[in-house]
Design goal:
223 residues; single chain; mainly alpha; transmembrane; membrane; transmembrane helix
Length: 223
């Protein structure tokens, strides 16, 4: 040990530069550790932001699907209610540009609708579906407002009388107090009154005939 202490006694001044170097190394190591920590924090934040963005996107897709369903339900309310279609015939009149526009917008939105929110994975796909749903909702709003404004004013007085008669006959066809024969006859007459005036959607006819046939306890009655 004496040689070592002799060395320290002779070169004690080396402590200062070596200490300075050691301090420099320690500071560099500390800074490097700090940089590594910052990178880990930044990576964590980026990963967390990505997860949050994905969750937000799926949340928006779910909201768009709900909005899409809401407009489809509003249209279904017309399809399943012949009386409502008679009151607002423009909703099924494909000669009306606004009706055609709404039906096209519906077809586009239905075609882009995902089976589940997770199916939409890109911003472009999300933007496409968002635009389609918004366009569908707007087109339906415009068509419905126009239908409620016009009502049956596009028809002549005799045609409006036929529509009114058809509505009364359909009420009889759905009336439990009427006999089966009366209800079947009323339904057939109502269809004849509507012929050439309003084109009923297939879903409307099917729902109406199913309702009447079910209440009568008989199969669908052809015209």
């Amino acid at each position: 040990m004496e040689p070592f202490f002799d060395f320290l006694g002779s070169y004690w001044w080396l402590i200062f530069p070596i200490g300075g170097m050691a301090g420099g190394w320690a500071r560099q190591w500390s800074k490097a550790s700090e940089r590594r920590h910052r990178r880990r924090v930044e990576l964590y934040k980026l990963k967390n932001q990505t997860v949050q963005a994905e969750q937000a996107s799926q949340s928006e897709v779910a909201a768009l699907i709900a909005a899409h369903d809401a407009v489809n339900q509003r249209w279904l309310d017309y399809e399943l209610d012949v009386g409502k279609l008679i009151d607002f015939p423009v909703m099924t009149d494909v000669r009306e540009p606004l009706t055609v526009a709404f039906l096209r917008a519906k077809k586009e939105a239905d075609g882009l609708r995902p089976a589940a929110p997770g199916e939409i994975t890109t911003a472009a796909r999300l933007a496409e579906y968002r635009a389609a749903v918004n366009g569908f909702e707007l087109a339906f709003d415009v068509a419905e407002r126009e239908a409620k404004r016009i009502k049956d004013h596009n028809f002549t007085e005799p045609e409006r009388q036929r529509l009114a008669t058809a509505k009364k006959l359909l009420n009889i066809a759905s009336d439990n107090a009427a006999t089966p024969a009366e209800r079947q006859t009323a339904y057939k007459r109502a269809r004849r009154e509507l012929d050439g005036l309003i084109v009923l959607p297939e879903a409307t006819v099917a729902a109406l005939e199913e309702k009447i046939a079910g209440e009568l306890g008989a199969p669908h009655v052809p015209e």
